[in-house]
């Protein structure tokens, strides 16, 4: 993976797995470096990478924001951020290695002069810090500012380094990638034109999680799961991404978008694609993308959206022993808002493997707990040599991939209750990452930033996937337009309509 | 729980009892069988508890005690999640012929299906146990720097190498190697000559030379230098310098406090930090890979082939 981007180095031997993959000398340029994402995730992740010895000897962080800062102030702010949010223990000597490699360029996004200065700064680093022209631009900024910054990068020539002494230039964008299919395509077109398509990294941080990558291992490195991973054995699939928190400080953004655009379009559909895709020919980015894209394009919404596309909005209630406000009483939310904080939808995947298997997806805020899981629920055993009363508490077999928290896999199956009778009951058998492997797996951002610097795109959705995902969401938004979401009490598992959706076919949501 | 003059059956019963009390199934990744002495026990236990955070294992710590005794005797201590971190641990003290028949005691104690790693700080040849330990291990970890004649000990390892062998002296140069490899990214010239300033009696320095020789096809000159180290588990290497085909030079130099400078022609000098890791961290790195380390094998072959030349 990604090795093709590295020049051939005689000291690197693929069989020598102790030598970590370390990126080439480079600079990471962060736009919006004073924001929460940069402070809580990006800069701490850089420190954690340094701590694990995964950064190149020549590595510079360049901050760009509207602050009257010098390099020292920026370095001090970064130090504080890394110290309070890093995953790995704080070691002064690790920081000392990064110290002196912080540059700050003040300015706003429409300020030509500031971008000229940024261009000059990055060029200088080639000589002063030996970054040989390599730079990744991280957009930790509101989506509205994307086009402005992209145009600045194009104007100054920063996005294309081929004429200018060589070295790669990459861009990292965070979700949301547009707000519908049309705007996403416009944005994709712009960013792919300013940079080149292979140099654009769209971050979906869920894909950086160990458990999500483990789905590939679980499905394609084992003999026992794949044979039953199809409509012959699977009754239905449930994907849940629940949060106990409300909208926090994101009122403006959230009210414009809602749960379907914020979460369903990206994280949940990506989980679905990985859980449902065919086996790729290899583990190269392109091969995985091909299979994910096929699944995303095979998604079909139910004809009856009235009962299979459910929206909800949380009302006053109690979450984890504390009273919480309803959505309409949150700060900066108009009392007439019809934005959903919960969305549940039933989909089908039109291919042979999944013919007739419903996929139920749900996501919401102010639900009882924070949990993300993929549950594959199997069909009932075809023949039961047991009496009804022996098996009445026996449910379907189930395989649950726990993405977060408490990452792992649980299998549920029936077993005999000890005693003289033949009473059967469900038991669950678990595998916990934390128990069997390292106590702390790398943060998703650590992995993804490293992959960007290495040029490995395996874990990044591309423009076509984004487009295919919007093709699923757009009809839902169209259908919901002008309707009011169904209220649900904070701290419960969502609106009644969502339960009815499954009950219609004799199924029910599992308690996640 | 302490068991005096006991049997493997009673030890396993005690372990099952403790696991039952703690509740829940345990998911193990490995069996780790470590051979040690009473003097080193604390050091080994400390390292094991660190590595256990990353690799939950069943630890079987074997301490040969009174080898002169005529009657075999087993004393055992069984713990779960106490001073040995999250590991399930059995500490065995063996007297007389019991020690010589180690595998008959250890085999029934291994958790089924998962790999077995053996690890010893001391030289098992001393106890005639090497064969016993080899018989059931998928991987064997040694630490030749601890031997009376470290380089000679590594040489013996090279001669009797079997797939799955590894040495902490190799583990402890990973960070050095990674730093050097990173400096070579983007370098297009070939290497003319290499000079390593190191303690020539350190097996890690020899492995460094052998690695560079294997990968670059140039035999490094090892200049015997006294190296001040601020951690026991650091390789005794002060600097590695390369001269390229174009006459340019590149050098990595570590000072006693850990500051490491990379000097490369045409680039500003860059500062890194290279600190020694604890024995537990080194053990954890070793346990990450369960299959034979073929890269190490090649390096060991080069070391063996050129050993006489370098030593002289």
TrEMBL record, chain A:
Q: Which UniProt keywords apply?
A: Carbohydrate metabolism, Glucose metabolism, NADP, Oxidoreductase
The answer to whether keyword Oxidoreductase applies is yes
The biological pathway it contributes to is: Carbohydrate degradation; pentose phosphate pathway; D-ribulose 5-phosphate from D-glucose 6-phosphate (oxidative stage): step 1/3
Q: Which GO terms describe its biological process?
A: glucose metabolic process; pentose-phosphate shunt, oxidative branch
Which amino acids does the record list as binding substrate? Answer: 205, 209, 243, 262, 365
The record's listing under PANTHER family reads: GLUCOSE-6-PHOSPHATE 1-DEHYDROGENASE (PTHR23429:SF0), GLUCOSE-6-PHOSPHATE 1-DEHYDROGENASE G6PD (PTHR23429)
Q: What is this protein called?
A: Glucose-6-phosphate 1-dehydrogenase
Its organism's taxonomic lineage begins at:
Bacteria, Bacillati, Actinomycetota, Actinomycetes, Glycomycetales
From TrEMBL, chain B:
Domain of life of the source: Bacteria
Looking up InterPro entries in the UniProt record yields:
G6PDH_assembly_OpcA (IPR004555), OpcA_G6PD_C (IPR046802), OpcA_G6PD_N (IPR046801)
* All copies of domain Glucose-6-phosphate dehydrogenase assembly protein OpcA N-terminal, residue ranges: 49-158
What the entry lists under Pfam families is as follows: OpcA_G6PD_assem (PF10128), OpcA_G6PD_C (PF20171)
The Glucose-6-phosphate dehydrogenase assembly protein OpcA C-terminal domain extends over 164-300
- UniProt-listed PANTHER family: OXPP CYCLE PROTEIN OPCA-RELATED
**What protein name is recorded for this chain?**
Glucose-6-phosphate dehydrogenase
């Amino acid at each position: 993976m990604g090795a093709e981007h590295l020049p051939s180095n005689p000291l690197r031997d693929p069989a020598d797995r102790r030598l970590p993959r370390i990126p080439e000398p480079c600079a990471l340029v962060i736009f919006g470096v004073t924001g929460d994402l940069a402070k809580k995730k990006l800069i701490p992740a850089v420190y954690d990478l340094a701590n694990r010895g995964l950064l190149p000897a020549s590595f510079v962080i360049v901050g760009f924001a509207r602050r009257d800062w010098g390099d020292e102030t920026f370095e001090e702010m970064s130090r504080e951020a890394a110290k309070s949010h890093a995953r790995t223990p704080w070691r002064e000597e690790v920081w000392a290695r990064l110290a002196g490699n912080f540059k700050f360029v003040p300015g706003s996004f429409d300020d030509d002069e500031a971008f000229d200065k940024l261009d000059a700064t990055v060029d200088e680093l080639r000589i002063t810090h030996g970054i040989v022209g390599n730079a990744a631009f991280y957009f930790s900024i509101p989506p509205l500012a994307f086009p402005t910054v992209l145009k600045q990068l194009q104007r100054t020539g920063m996005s294309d380094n081929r004429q200018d002494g060589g070295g790669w230039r990459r861009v990292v964008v965070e979700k949301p990638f547009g707000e519908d299919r049309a705007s996403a395509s416009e944005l994709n077109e712009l960013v792919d034109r300013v940079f080149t398509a292979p140099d654009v990294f769209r971050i979906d941080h869920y894909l950086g999680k160990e458990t999500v990558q483990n789905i590939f291992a679980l499905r394609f490195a084992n003999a026992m799961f794949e044979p039953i991973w199809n409509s012959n054995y699977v009754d239905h699939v449930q994907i849940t991404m629940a949060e106990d928190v409300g909208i926090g400080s994101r009122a403006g953004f959230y009210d414009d978008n809602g749960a379907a655009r914020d979460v369903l379009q990206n994280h949940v559909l990506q989980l679905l694609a990985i859980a449902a895709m065919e086996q790729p020919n290899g583990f190269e980015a392109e091969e995985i993308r091909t299979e994910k894209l096929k699944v995303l394009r095979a998604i079909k919404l139910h004809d009856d959206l009235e009962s299979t596309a459910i929206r909800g909005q949380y009302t006053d209630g109690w979450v984890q022993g504390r009273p919480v406000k309803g959505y309409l009483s949150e700060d900066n939310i108009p009392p007439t808002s019809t934005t959903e904080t919960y969305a549940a939808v039933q989909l089908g995947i039109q291919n042979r493997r999944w013919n007739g298997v419903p996929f139920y997806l749900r996501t919401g805020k102010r639900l009882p707990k924070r949990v993300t899981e993929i549950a594959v629920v199997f069909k009932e055993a075809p023949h039961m040599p047991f009496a009804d009363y022996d098996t009445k508490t026996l449910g379907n077999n189930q395989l649950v991939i726990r993405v977060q928290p408490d990452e792992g896999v649980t299998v549920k199956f029936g077993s005999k209750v000890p005693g003289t009778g033949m009473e059967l009951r469900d038991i669950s058998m678990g595998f916990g990452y934390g128990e069997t492997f390292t106590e702390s797996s790398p943060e998703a951002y650590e992995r993804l930033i490293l992959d960007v610097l290495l040029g490995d795109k395996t874990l990044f959705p591309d423009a076509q996937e984004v487009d295919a995902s919007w093709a699923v969401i757009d009809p839902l938004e169209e259908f919901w337009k002008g309707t009011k979401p169904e209220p649900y009490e904070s701290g419960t598992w969502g609106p009644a309509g969502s339960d009815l959706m499954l009950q219609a076919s004799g199924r029910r949501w599992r308690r996640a | 729980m302490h068991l005096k003059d006991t049997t493997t059956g009673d030890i396993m019963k005690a372990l099952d009892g403790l696991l039952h009390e703690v509740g829940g199934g345990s998911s193990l990744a490995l069996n780790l069988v470590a051979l040690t002495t009473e003097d080193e026990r604390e050091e080994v236990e400390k390292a094991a508890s660190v590595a256990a955070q990353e690799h939950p294992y069943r630890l079987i710590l074997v301490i040969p005690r009174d080898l002169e005794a005529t009657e075999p005797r087993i004393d055992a201590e069984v713990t779960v999640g106490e001073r040995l971190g999250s590991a399930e641990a059995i500490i065995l003290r063996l007297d007389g012929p019991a020690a010589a028949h180690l595998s008959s005691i250890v085999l029934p104690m291994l958790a089924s299906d998962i790999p077995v790693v053996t690890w010893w700080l001391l030289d098992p040849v001393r106890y005639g146990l090497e064969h016993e330990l080899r018989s059931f291990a998928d991987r064997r970890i040694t630490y030749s720097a601890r031997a009376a004649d470290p380089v000679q000990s590594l040489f013996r390892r090279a001669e009797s190498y079997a797939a799955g062998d590894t040495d902490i002296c190799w583990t402890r140069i990973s960070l050095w190697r990674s730093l050097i490899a990173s400096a070579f990214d983007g370098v297009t010239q070939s290497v003319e000559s290499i000079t390593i300033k190191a303690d020539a009696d350190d097996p890690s320095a020899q492995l460094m030379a052998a690695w560079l020789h294997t990968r670059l096809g140039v035999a490094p000159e090892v200049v015997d230098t006294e190296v001040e180290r601020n951690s026991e588990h650091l390789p005794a290497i002060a600097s590695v310098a390369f001269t390229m085909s174009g006459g340019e030079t590149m050098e990595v130099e570590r000072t006693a406090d850990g500051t490491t400078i990379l000097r490369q022609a045409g680039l500003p000098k860059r500062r890194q930090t290279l600190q020694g890791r604890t024995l537990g961290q080194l053990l954890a790195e070793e346990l990450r890979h369960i299959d034979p380390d073929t890269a190490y094998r090649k390096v060991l072959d080069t070391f063996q082939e050129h050993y006489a030349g370098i030593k002289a």
